[in-house]
Amino acid sequence: MSISTRSYWREGLAFEGSSGFNSVRMDARGPLGQASGPTPKELVLMGTAGCTGIDVIVHLNKHKQTFDSMEIEASAETSHEGYPSVFTSVSLRFTVNGKVDEQKLVEAVVLSQTKYCGVSAMLSAVAPLSYVVVLNGKEVAQGRANFEGISK
Fold first, then answer.
1. What is the pLDDT of residues 66-75, one digit of tens each?
2. Which domain holds residue 79?
């Protein structure tokens, strides 16, 4: 399988990334850019949250778990010395509300972070990726992404 995107310069440091029918604007923060869209690194974090979120929802739906809301906060620490500035650690915080079995939710996140989420697999190969799971306001699990043994 092959994935392809294109990015088109729009103005200043802003680009529009396109993958067929969908597009997203990205830009640098000031003082160089105009912050007219997420930065490329922010898009990587958004992609990570989206990838793992899709996995978790598929698993919850498979087990007929009803949730009212789900938020995935993705954050990263970056290197501060020299160039390029890269992620040195990544953290995910899954916050779910609703009538969800705690074990099924934790199982969904663990499967995503050890087997299914390709974006997490790629990131965790270069920086530690940790996660916390919160259900109805209570922290129910924490762990680290571990994709050892996954073929590349």
1. 999 999 999 9
2. 40-144
